[in-house]
Amino acid sequence: MAVPKKRTSRSKTKIRRSIWIDKANKTALKAFSLAKSVLTNRSKSFYYSIDRKLPNSSESTSIDEV
After folding, report:
1. Which residues contact 43 (CB under 8 A, 6 or more apart)?
2. Which residues cross the membrane (predicted)?
3. Contact in structure between 43 and 34 (CB atoms under 8 Å)
4. Measured between alpha carbons, how far is 23 from 33 in angstroms, rounded to an integer?
């Protein structure tokens, strides 16, 4: 016969939730740190190619010119 499970205590629920939130905060902090290092060209663990050519705004066509 099916028996209902016991309710999880409030403190255990809060502990599990805080662990989950701490993991998310740590991951977000790592991502932000990597983004800052890439923007300042100091990244040692992330390799990317740099395309130095920027599009010239005078060469682009707009709807008004056509």
Report:
1. 34, 37
2. none
3. yes
4. 15
Cα–Cα distance for residue pair 19/7, rounded to 1 Å: 20
What burial letters (b/e) apply to 2-13, b meaning 16+ CB within 10 Å? eeeeeeeeeeee
Amino acid making up residue 6? K
Give the Cα separation of 20 and 31 in Å (integer): 17
- Nearby residues of 48 by Cβ (< 8 Å), 6 or more positions away: 38
pLDDT tens figures, 10-64 = 999 999 999 999 999 999 999 998 888 888 877 777 666 666 665 665 555 555 5
- Report the largest interatomic distance among the alpha carbons of the chain, rounded to a whole angstrom: 78
Pull the structure tokens for residue 6: 């016991």
Structure tokens at 24: 């998310």
